[in-house]
Structures are given as C-alpha cells and as structure tokens.
C-alpha cells in the first residue's frame, strides 16, 4: 500500500495531504474550536491580555503597549516587552469570528488561534520535510510533529502557551529555507528574514535559544545557506523593529528577578527535568516510569546494535544513560542543590518536571531510533547529524546534570524554564523521524532490516504515552467551561516586574493580590480617579486615549495630587498651562502617579510616550516592509521578462 502511495502522488494529492494535516489539527483542537481554551496554566493570563489588547486595538490604538484598564483600572506597560504576534492575530480575527461579547469571548478567540497555529505548524513542518523525503513520509512526519508530547501536552493542553505555539510554526520554516538555499537569491533571503522576524514577534526567547542551532544547521546545509541566514537575521531585526527597538530601550524598567522572588516556582533550578520526592505519589508515576524504561531500554539496545560511527553511538548511549539516571527519584534535586543554583524547594506545579522528563525521554527515543535507521545507509547525513546533536544537547540542557553550566552562564534567569528546549527537541525529533521513515520505506523494498511498521509503531507509542502522561485524554473527554475573563479578579501577574520593590506590597493590596496568582475580587476603576494627598482644591481627569490623560485642577495653595494610574517612567507632562515642570510628576508610595502643583489653575496632559525608540521602530519596520515588497515586485517582473528568453 505504501509503495503504491509513493508512486501515485500527484499535485492534487499534495492538496489532500495538506487537508489531512488541517483535519488532524482540528481533531486535536476540538475543545478549542467549539468551547474555547481549557483551564490551563497560562490560559487566563493570555485571555486577560487579549481582552485589553483587542479592546484598545479596535478602539484606535494600533499597538497597545500600555493596557489602560488592566490591573483593575490602574494600567500595565507589559506590552513594551510581551511578544505581540498572537494578540495581533487574535484581535484581527474578531470581526470574522463575531463571537458574542461574553466573558468567554477571548477564550473562544484564542481557541481558534490555537487551532490555526497547530495546523500551520503541521504545514510548515511538511514543507520542510518535503525537501528531504517523499510526500507520504513528509505528511506522517508533520502529523507526528503536531502530536508529539510537548507540542500537544506541554504547549497546547498543559499551558496554552500561545507564543511557543507560534514559534513551532516558524522554526521548521527557517530550517526549510536553509535546505532550499542552494543559490544565494533575494527570494530566499527575504523569506528567511520574514520567518525570523515572525519568530521575534512570537517568542523572543526562542530566537536566542535557536541562534547556535540555526547557524549549525545552515553550515550543514551548504556554504550558500550561511550568508542567507546571516542576511536574513540582520534584515529580520529591521522588520521587527517596531517591537524590538522599544524592547531594547525600555527593558531596563522590568526586573525578571523580581518575578522569580515572588514566584519561587519560576526558579531556573526548579524547571529542569527530574523526579522529586513529592512527585513519586502522583498517580501517573508508576505506569509512566515502567513505560519510559521499557521504551528507552529498547531504543538503547537498538542504538547499541545500529550502524553508524562509534562516536555517534557512544554520544547517543551517554545521553540516554544521563536521562535514565534522572528516573531515580530525588537524584535530580540533589544534583541541582549541589550545583549552587538558587532553589527554595523542588515541588513541581502539576508534576511538570516529572512530565517533562518522561515525555522528553520519549521524544529523544524517537529521534535516536530514526537516526539509527538512517545511519545504516552510506551517504552524506550532515543535516541529520546536526539534528541529532541538537536533540541530544537540548535534552541534556534540560537535565540537572547541566545545572553546573547554567550556574556559570550570566543572566540565565531570562530563560526561566530550561524545559523550553523541549520545543527544539521536538523539531529535531520530527525532522529525523520523517527522514527515517522515508529511509525505512525505501530499504524495505530491497530487503533492509528496519521496517516502516516499526517506525510507525514507535511514533504511535510516543504520542499515546505523551497523551497519557499529560492527561490530555481527560481534558479531551471532559470538555469543561473555559476560563472567564473576570476583570474584577484577574490582574497582570507580571506587575511585580515593573512596580518597584518598595511599592509592590502597597500596590498589591490596592488590587487585592497577596501573591501574583492569589487575587480576590475588588472594584475596577473604569475611569481615572484623582484625589488630593495634600492641599485642597478641585480636580478633574479625563482619558482622551489609552495613552493620554487630560487634567484640570484648581489649587487653593501648594498641593499634591494622586492619579489612579500606575506610574511608569514613560509618562510625561505635555501641553501644560500654568502647571509645574515635568519633574513634578513622581511615584507615590503605592506605585501610582503623583503631581505636585502650586496655587492657581492648571491644565495639562499626561502622555505615555514611547519616545524616539518607538518612533524609530515604526519607521524602520515600515521602510523595511516597503523595501521588501518592492524587491518582490522587481524580482517578479524580472522573472516574467526572462521566461520568453529561456523558452527560446
């Protein structure tokens, strides 16, 4: 059957393969499509961001960097640093979807977004695999990619990590463009720049993690690929400048360490792949441990017997051995503690560290099995070896054995969770699997030992085991109500990063938060309030736009006025008439804006001003987009002019 399928592929079949991937994504996202995103770890926060982002976007604020009504009406500058791509896409979908404006509208919109991203991830993966193997193998590889444990369990159902989900779309596309960089051309460079720019906008951390991987893969793909990647990377900075310039200029106003100090679960050492003592009592522990050991020992034996170089086999066996040792409860925490990484404990939210260990081992097993299948054949497998090294290094960096390295790397707190590397492991594993499946099918025709059936069974076992470990089956069967956007309760849990430490306690009390995640319902300030902290008089405040306030005040003497908006250094006094100079704007003990005024009448505007960084970012992005479009028009025109000559 497979042989007939391989020989009967037609252009129409390509469309059927794409539709199959989209249909599979729809089945995997059925709850997302019909009910909304599930009650996962990040779902409520993304829904809250989307609530305010879409509201301001359709209110005329093209890029809502200041969420005026977030934090129960006191505002949030989070979109100076938060990646914008998922929120722009979901906001743009609002008129098309036309969901009723209920408390679950954002949840339903994000559900459709997740389906689109999962389907797009499958399609870009197939686009990559198609340059390396047959259509059927490429399609099966893409289906495995979107169903791998971390993709389906960790990103989609476990956390609804919308930024990582978008990153899973662009990473295979970047690899595919490296494979197609057989000649240095404007089309390939421009496509590469767009793909990397979209990755910047989707999740900046993945660009930082992928830089060495992309360079290594480009070198393996051929000498023409590296210049393409270098120019594409440089131009991507220009395309994404509207986001990156303000981020670079103002990230100093955000303190990532503050979030870790308030949320110990975000400590880097607690976010590795290990089994702590408290996770042993988890209901999934015994069956997952037995299944993981069984799969891993079988793959270990296969690696031992496989062809390929001795160095490669030893590296694979060592990586597996390091992973197997982490199945010993308590060993991982002991290694992390001895490394000196700061940890206040090793309790894991929803057994996340244990789940990551089990499912990353499953995924690594699939990658090594596929590579061993390929290695039996003579040939140039530089790209596959690069993917193998990527998979092994990504897996090792998630293990406590790498804690000593993380300890000496400066500013590792920006990564927070080493298990983010699971996404890179998933990409490498899927790439190896697609080529391995293709190789197994071809060698079956000439009497090779490896079988297509064995490869497919291995992939099925990994997918099913991942579903069981992450309990996706329960989330799939129990289609509960999605998180509701309760603006009287939810706040931006990242407020501790942009509110100064001395003001955090008072601001947290004001918004009803004892911790960033323990929040009680309190009154939402729908309009900006103003009160006199000292002196007497009359004052009125009107919000002109989300980023502009008009203030009129009459003071009977020197006075100090407090506004019900969070202070941030980008707030400026402009258009003042009879008011105090700009330095009169300051922060109160509770983190709000205060203005000192003298006796008399005052009228002025307060503006959240992104300054030169924001303006330059917009200009550079706009000019870059125009140049890119113009280049495509010129190249297209030249191509049309050359066709008759080539035909003659």
Give your account of this protein's structure.
The chain is an alpha+beta fold. Among the domains are: 191-253 and 610-648, no CATH class; 255-450, no CATH class; 530-609, Sandwich (Immunoglobulin-like). Helices cover 60% and strands 9% of the residues. The chain has 27 helices and 10 strands. The strands form 3 sheets. A 4-stranded antiparallel beta sheet has the order 3-6-9-8, with no helix packed on it. The longest helix is centred in the last third of the chain and has 37 residues, at 611-647. 49% of the residues are buried. The model is unreliable at 579-583 (pLDDT under 50).
Helix-strand blueprint:
Elements (H helix, E strand, L loop, with lengths): L1 H6 L3 H18 L1 H5 L8 H15 L12 H4 L11 H13 L7 H26 L4 H13 L1 H11 L2 H18 L6 H17 L1 H18 L3 H15 L1 H10 L5 H7 L22 H21 L4 H16 L5 H9 L12 H24 L6 H17 L4 H6 L12 H24 L7 H18 L2 H6 L17 H4 L2 H11 L1 E3 L2 E2 L10 E5 L2 E9 L2 E8 L3 E8 L4 E7 L7 E3 L4 E6 L2 E9 L2 H37 L1
Antiparallel strand pairs: 1-2, 3-6, 4-5, 5-10, 6-9, 7-10, 8-9
Helix pairs in contact: 2-7, 2-8, 4-6, 6-7, 7-8, 7-10, 8-22, 9-23, 10-11, 10-12, 11-12, 11-13, 12-20, 14-27, 16-17, 16-19, 17-19, 17-20, 19-20, 19-22, 19-23, 20-22, 22-23
